[in-house]
Amino acid sequence: MEPLSEKNNQLREKLTRENRKYYENLLLYLRIKGKDELVTEAVLLEILQDMLEAQANGRSAQQYFGADPKAADELVTEINGDKQANLKENLSLNVFIFCLLTLLAFTHTEINVIAYMIEIVGMVILLNITLTLLATDAFKRVSWQSYLGVGVAFMAYVGVLLLSDYFTPKTLIYPLGPATLWGIGALFVIYLVLYFKWSDHFSSGLFYIGALAFAATLVHLPLTGNIFQTLWGQVSLLVMLALILTVKAFKFKK
Amino acid sequence: MNNSQLLKGTLEGCVLLVISQQEFYGYELVTKLQQLGFLDLSAGTVYPLLQKLERQGYLKSQLRASSEGPRRKYYDLTTSGQRQIQKFITDWQQLTATVTAVIEQTGGSKDGAIERKK
């Protein structure tokens, strides 16, 4: 069966530019705040079909759905019911595991546990800030200062990433042998395959696995290893992967 | 109680009453409610209500082909929804009777209220 999000992508093309902008704000807001992906997608598709009908009858998306942002909040409340975790929370957990495993898989000789923990927690915090900003931006005008703030936070994070190896205590540094690395690699692949298989994004999942396999090869091949085993090389690779993952994983917009 | 709270409770009953007549999908229902007199009603108020009524078991939904072509989500009343309609009608009649009595006993037509103030 065609995933609901795919159908949404196709139908959304039929909205006029102005109506599409309005609808995509709503879509972004619901996808971030909605806790049940299937229910959220079903509601989004239902509203889209209705908006298209309204459009055909000469009514704009805003005239049809209303200008009050509280309506979107009420919709989120009803969609969520008593569900516990929303996309942001689920994603935080997944990013945590993803970063943990990626950083470990990229390690070739030893691991500084404290530095890794700081890097991972930083990534989860940044992700939450970004998602909150995106959700707010869907219905309220977010100042350029907020965006600048997030930009600065990202840069600060890269700084922390670079410095954490040098400035954290060296008491928790463990050597890693090839057997451990193979074990971590295997766990990583199993986790990714299972996650994407169950999350209705299997084809996108293959994309990530391919991208990560490529990255890991760069780290471990003798020719490219010299570059990508340095701190800067690994940071650039990780930032690149994190960006690809964020952009592809959400598929907020086509 | 402000207007929007009053409207929501009332609207819930009216949505159930309208759907008791025939199945509706979102757009049709919003249009029908507007035709019936809820002129300022926006769809943003109706969708959360439909979600809520479905979750409470008063409505059930089904994806079916529409006259327009694509499959739409049609809402229909459940037995529990029918009981809820009876409860709504009873509550509403009691409320209107009470409010009418209060208006009559306080002489509270608009003009009357203005006169008292003077």
Number of domains of chain A: 2
Helix count, DSSP H or I runs of 4 or more residues of chain A: 12
Quick one: which chains have the greatest interface? A-B, 22 and 18 residues
SSE succession of chain A: HHHHHHEHHEHHHH
CATH architectural name of chain B: Orthogonal Bundle
Number of strands of chain B: 3
Distance between the termini of chain B: 26 Å
CATH topology-level fold name of chain B: Arc Repressor Mutant, subunit A
The portion of residues forming beta strands of chain A comes to under 5%
Shape of chain A: elongated
Search tags:
heterodimer, A: mainly alpha, c-terminal domain of poly(a) binding protein, 2 domains, 12 helices, 2 strands, 79% helix, 2% strand, elongated, B: 118 residues, alpha+beta, Arc Repressor Mutant, subunit A, three-stranded antiparallel sheet, 5 helices, Tscrpt_reg_PadR_N (chain B), PadR family transcriptional regulator (chain B), WH_DNA-bd_sf (chain B), Metal_resp_DNA-bind_regulator (chain B)
Describe it.
The complex is a heterodimer of chains A (254) and B (118). By secondary structure, chain A is mainly alpha-helical. Chain A has two domains: 77 residues, c-terminal domain of poly(a) binding protein, CATH 1.10.1900; 164 residues, no CATH class. Helices cover 79% and strands 2% of the residues of chain A. Chain A contains twelve helices and two strands. A two-stranded antiparallel sheet of chain A has the order 1-2. In chain A, helix 6 runs antiparallel to helix 9. The longest helix of chain A is centred in the middle third of the chain and has 27 residues. In chain A, 24% of the residues are buried. The model of chain A has no long low-confidence stretch (mean pLDDT 75). Chain B has a three-stranded antiparallel sheet. The radius of gyration of chain B is 18 Å and the shape is elongated. In chain B, a hairpin with a 5-residue loop joins strand 2 and strand 3. Chain B has a single domain, classed as Winged helix-like DNA-binding domain superfamily/Winged helix DNA-binding domain (Arc Repressor Mutant, subunit A). Helices cover 65% and strands 14% of the residues of chain B. Chain B is built from five helices and three strands; from the N terminus they run H-E-H-H-E-E-H-H. Chain B is an alpha+beta fold and 118 residues long. The chains are: A mainly alpha (254), B alpha+beta (118). At the A-B interface, helix 3, helix 4 and helix 5 of A face helix 2 and helix 3 of B.
